[in-house]
């Protein structure tokens, strides 16, 4: 799990992956083979240590998949890609395990994020129903759940301005009413669609945001793929009333 923490930094990722193993395989292939090995091990047993290793490898390879130079190598490994697709439906639950590191995403979330990075996903098309009733610009808020209290305060302030509609993962903004939704691994498709139809994406920038692969995926999709207008807000610099 130490590497998964370090791999939030692209320079460290590049340094590690450029190392010579002294064998025919490189570091990317080494990690892929490890994942394949522990995938097979976890099919035959409920060994928590093996499951945690598989979880860590999924998160680590998700970090690698953000790097353009390694995408083709991952995509061209057919066995690896098959297993990643199988793992998106995996039911291993380590959320209550006493050694489960908080910075790791679930196997399902990591593999879905990995596939999203590697596969060319078609963009959603905003339906007439979505666009017809929207009389104000839509602001989508991207944040780390470590900053949830600040985020809720920001949402309240934006609503008071009555200049923007707001989309955020824990709330669905429908006309003038908020409907609670549960944040889960299944919500990425909803987040992606919200980014696509948003006029602007507001980022709550913090160390926790920087360390989160989920947040990085949202930012990458908004800025690199969709070229959305981005407004960063830094919680630690906002003056409290």
Automatic annotation (TrEMBL):
A Pfam family the protein falls into: TIR_2
Any one biological process term the GO annotation gives: signal transduction
Domain TIR stretches: 135-241
Full protein name: TIR domain-containing protein
Source organism (scientific name): Didymodactylos carnosus
